[in-house]
Amino acid sequence: MSIARSMLQLKSHFPLYLGGKPIFNAGSCFSVKDKYTNKVATIVSSATSQQIDEAIMFASGSERELRGVPLYERKNILNTIVEKLKERFEEMSQYITVETGKPIKISRVEMLRAIDTFTLASEEVQRLHGYTERYDYSSTNTGVRGRVERFPRGLVSCITPFNFPVNLIAHKIAPAIAVGCPFVVKPSPKTPVSALVLGEILAETSLLEKSWSILPCKNSLAPLFVEDPRIKMVSFTGGLEVGMAIKRSAVNSVSTSLALELGGDAATIIDDYDLDLNKLADTLLFAGMYQSGQSCISLQRLFVHENKYSQLLKLLVEKAQKLAIGDPLNVNTMISPLITMDAAVKVEELVQDAIERGAKCHCGGKRKDSLYYPTILTDVPKESRLAQEEAFGPVIYVEKFKDWKKVIERVNSSRFGLQAGIYTDNVFKIEYAFNNLEVGGVVVNAPCASRADAQPYGGIKDSGFGREGLKSAMEEMTEVKTMLMKNIDKY
Known about the structure:
alpha/beta; six-stranded mixed beta sheet; 491 residues; Aldehyde Dehydrogenase, Chain A, domain 1; 2 domains; 14 helices; Aldehyde Dehydrogenase, Chain A, domain 2; seven-stranded mixed beta sheet
C-alpha cells in the first residue's frame, strides 16, 4: 500500500529520553529532514554533554538493581515491546521511510525484523543457563567441581547508524534487556526519530527507568559514549573510520569490551550449473539495490563463471534500467534518494574514478541531487577506489571467473570480510568456500545480502569484530564467572 504524503502526521517536536523520561530541550535541538522532499519533517531534542553524563550516571548506578530483575520480568518487558511494535507497525514504517528515504516496502520489512529481534530475545531469556563440570581429570584436582555462570557486564553504550534506525537499535538493546544490562543509545543524527518512538514504547514497559536513555546529539559528542570508564561495553555499527577511532579510544580501558560492525564490499559468486538466470538476476539486483545499496552487506562485487557471464550481465543491465525510481512512499518504488547529498557525491566519485581507470559502465553512472541511478559496471581495475572501498550505494560491478579456488582468492583480496554469497550445486566447492573465504558469514545459494536476525553476525579484517544476533550478542554483553568447589560431596 502506498502512502499519500499529505497523510503523514509527524509530531512537531520529539523529546530525548534521559533516565527513561522524556525531556524537551527547547534550547538544544536539531531538525530532521524528509529525505525525499528535503524539507524539515520534525524537530528533535539534542542531548547536551551534561545530560549524557547524567544518563551514564543513572545507568551505571542501576547495574546492581537491574541484575536482580527476574527472567520472567525481562521476558514480559520484551514481549510488551513486541506488542507495541505490532500496534505501531505502519506508523513506524512511515517514520523510517521519511527519515531514511528508503522505500516504504523496505521499511515494513525492517519493522517485521525488529519484531522478530525482540521476540528472539524474549525466547533467549529462557536459555540463560549456567552449567557445572568436574575437574577431577587429574589427581591434583581430586574432589574439585566447577559452577559456571554468565553475569551482565554492566552499562552498554549503543551507537547506531542511519540505515536501519529501528532494527539495529533492537539488535543492541534487546540482548541488553535480556541479560540485565543498562544502556544508553546514541542514534544517528540523520535518523533519530525512529529511535525516539522506540523510546516511547520502552517508557510504556516496566523496564527500570534510570537504566536506559536515548540521546540524539551531534557527532562531536560521540566520544562521551566511548571514553567514560563507567561504560563496560561499546556496541557500534557504522563506518570504518569512526569504528577505528572508537577502538583507539577504548584501548586505554582494559575493562571496556567492544563489538564493532564496520561494513564491507560484499561479494557473491555464481558457479556454472543449472540456474534460472532470469530469476537470479532479480534476486541479485535486489541484493545490490535495496534501499539504494545502503547496507553493509549490499552486493557490490559479483563474480560470475565465464559460461554464465554474458547472459547474466545482459539480464542485470536490462532489469536495472527498469527499476522504479521515485517517491519512497510509493509501494512500487525501488530506488530513492541516498541519505545525503554528500553520500550520493561519494558514490559518483567512486564510479567516475573507476570509469576513468578503464571500467565500462553499462547503465546508470549518473547522479541527480541525492539520487544515484542504479549502476552496473564491468572491468573495474583493482587499483580503483571502487575496488578498494565500500560504495554504500546502488552499484554492482561484475567480473568473470573460471577457477573456483582463484575466485575465492579474488574475494579475499578485499580489506573487508563481513559476508559473502555463493551459488553452486557442488558440496565440495561449498565446503572449500566455507573453509577459505575470509568473512564472518558465508551464504549458500543466496546473495551476500541475506541475514537471519538470529545468526551470529559480524566480520573480520576491516569489517570489525564481535558478533550480533541475539544469542551471540547476549554472550558479548555478559562475562563468565566460575565457582570452584572442593569436596562438597564429602558431607
